[in-house]
Write a structure and sequence with these properties.
By secondary structure, the chain is of the alpha/beta class. The chain has 16 helices and 17 strands. It has three domains: 171 residues, NAD(P)-binding Rossmann-like Domain (Rossmann fold), CATH 3.40.50.720; 153 residues, no CATH class; 91 residues, Antifreeze-like/N-acetylneuraminic acid synthase C-terminal domain (Type Iii Antifreeze Protein Isoform Hplc 12).
Length: 441
């Protein structure tokens, strides 16, 4: 199998280009456009955003001359522009997913319901779909993957996102026959369950980030969502609800992930976890029963065993997404997908006391945060998946701070794509979830 770089160069020499359609020209989307514009064999030929100026600016900053950017919502004009070697800026996401010229669609919106609809439409139009929207993936990724498989296209998460980077370590270790003990990521700020856009505003302004997005990192929601994606891809489970959140440097990880009976700090193997102190890296804890393998690992300065750590100290977010685009198009392979079905769930927890009649807001907002449970635990509690939360979900009773919000606690005032897909997923995979074997602590 040729390396992706050489395969892309081969495509370009043959006059073939992977035509990418992007939805979302925020920070992630803009970076991806610029990265791809410098690559061989690939181009973002159409981008949609509610702010058309975001798209045009992203193309111009990537080096595309302004006169080569065609602003239109008309399918015929868009198709003609792409055939002429130009790029299209649009406010119509469905134009991206339906345009015949597009081979691979990328969702970079970060909004669960919009991401679910983009993925649904892309699959119906038989286009590969790359999700830079882990919140949508952990909510309805199982049914979307099933649909994609049936349609002969690839449904995948993105390289560069932490779940994708973790998956690369897992695939490497698993292929070599190592026992994989744990998979995880670093968290780069202290857990603050009360974080909201107001408390995060000052730091967000310094970093040039969205206060809402920053709050979703600070309150732990993003970490819970990302490790839920890893759980669904690998079958690994959280060692305890919410995970432990140990504090450690990289050298200390092998000892932490020994079982408690052996002097460590965990109750199980094959777990997902996050660590304060190693961000922005990701890791896999591995072991081997083979004497010669252990001898070699010690010789290679990997530690004294029995556990060893594989650590990647970076992830380049959307700048690595082109790797997933290429893998889907060239090799028909996903970077990460929920191969093991619904193994874990990021459920909805009240961030403050809430009253009956209150509407919930969204991830990184003022009302709720995410907490990882096994899928079995979530089903037993009737816990509301966090990806279903939006401004149209209203509480039917008072909820105390720290309480898990259930399906019975809410009413949906407006139906949406992600709710419909989730109902379909629950109906399709209910028996599999109920058979899930819990960890034995």
């Amino acid at each position: 199998m040729l390396g992706i770089n050489r395969k892309l160069e081969e495509l370009e020499r043959s006059g073939i280009m992977i035509k990418v359609g992007l939805v979302g020209a925020g920070q992630m989307g803009r970076g991806m456009i610029s990265q791809i514009e410098g690559m061989a064999g690939m181009r973002v030929v159409i981008t949609a955003d509610i702010q058309l100026t975001n798209v045009t600016s992203a193309y111009v900053k990537s080096g595309v001359p302004g006169e080569q950017v065609v602003e239109t919502n008309n399918p015929q004009q868009a198709e003609a522009a792409v055939k002429e070697g130009k790029v299209v800026a649009t406010t119509d996401a469905q134009l991206v997913t339906s345009l015949r010229e597009v081979d691979v669609v990328v969702d970079a919106t970060g909004i669960p319901d919009i991401g679910a609809k983009i993925a649904w439409d892309a699959i119906l139009n038989r286009k590969h779909i790359v999700m830079l929207n882990v919140e949508a993936d952990v909510t309805v990724g199982v049914i979307l993957k099933k649909m994609a498989d049936a349609s002969g296209v690839v449904y995948t998460g993105s390289a560069g996102d932490e779940p994708g980077a973790i998956m690369e370590l897992y695939d490497f270790a698993d292929a070599l026959g190592f026992e994989v003990i744990a998979l995880g990521k670093g968290k780069n700020n202290p857990l603050n369950l009360a974080a909201n856009p107001e408390t995060a505003a000052e730091e967000a302004a310094r970093k040039g980030a969205s206060p809402k997005m920053l709050a979703s990192f600070q309150d732990g929601t993003k970490t819970m969502v990302e490790m839920t994606a890893v759980a669904n891809a690998t079958g690994f489970l959280p060692d305890k609800p919410g995970m432990h959140g140990f504090v450690s440097d990289v050298k200390g990880l092998p000892e932490i992930f020994k079982l408690k009976a052996e002097g460590g700090q965990v109750g199980n193997k094959r777990i997902v976890e996050y660590i304060n102190g190693i961000a922005p890296g990701v890791f896999a804890i591995i072991a081997s029963e083979k004497e010669e393998v252990n001898h070699e690992l010690k010789y290679l300065s990997m530690g004294e065993g029995p556990n060893y750590v594989l650590y990647r100290p970076y992830h380049l977010t959307s700048l690595e997404t082109p790797i997933s685009i290429a893998r889907a198009y060239i090799y028909n392979e996903a970077t990460i997908a929920p191969w093991h079905g619904l193994q874990a769930e990021t459920v909805t927890v009240a961030k403050t006391d809430l009253a009956a009649g209150d509407f919930l807001d969204s991830i990184g907002g003022f009302t709720v945060y995410g907490h990882i449970l096994t899928a079995r635990e979530a089903r037993q509690q009737k816990a509301l998946p966090l990806g279903l939360v939006d401004k149209h979900v209203r509480l039917k009773r008072d909820i105390k701070k720290g309480e898990v919000i259930t399906y019975d606690d809410v009413e949906q005032t407006v139906d949406s794509t992600i709710w419909r897909l989730r109902r379909m997923q629950d109906d399709t995979f209910k028996a599999e979830t109920e058979k899930q074997v819990p960890l034995q602590a």
